[in-house]
Amino acid sequence: MAAIDQLFPRFLPHLLVAVHTGMRMTEQYSLRWSQVNLERRQLHLPKTNPHKPRVISLNDTAMGAFNSLKATSTHQAISYFRLLAPGNPFKAPVVGLAQRWRKPI
């Protein structure tokens, strides 16, 4: 985590959310602020695999990450990745990030 914080500090909250919630990549990068209840420490995912809604409880680390993301967010969507079209979820450039991480680490 220290290497990611040093090399890609903007991505650290996203990594912490992934690790501490267990969300699938598609769930995480299509998440909207309307699905996050910080007061109840919960995420509400209406569509998951196998198409059943689920609620994810947030631990202290995930809460800190979401608070960090909220402080810098300017969109309904949580992710900072490129929008495909207005109202559509983001698509994560996983391959590009993985290749960039391997070089410095």
Characterise this structure.
Helix content is 41%, strand content 10%. The protein contains 5 helices and 3 strands; from the N terminus they run H-H-H-E-E-E-H-H. Strands 1-2-3 form a 3-stranded antiparallel β-sheet, with no helix packed on it. A hairpin with an 8-residue loop joins strand 2 (42-45) and strand 3 (54-57). The termini are close together. Residues 80-86 and 88-98 have low confidence and may be disordered.
Give me the CATH architecture, please.
Answer: Orthogonal Bundle
What would CATH call the class?
A: Mainly Alpha
State the strand order across the main sheet: 1-2-3
Query: Which oligomeric form is depicted?
Result: single chain
Summarize, please.
The chain has helices spanning 2-7, 12-21, 25-29, 60-72, 94-102; strands spanning 36-37, 42-45, 54-57. It is mostly helical and 105 residues long.
Features:
105 residues; mainly alpha; hpI Integrase, Chain A; 3-stranded antiparallel sheet; 5 helices; globular
Helices and strands in order, then pairings?
Blueprint: H1 2-7, H2 12-21, H3 25-29, E1 36-37, E2 42-45, E3 54-57, H4 60-72, H5 94-102
Antiparallel strand pairs: 1-2, 2-3
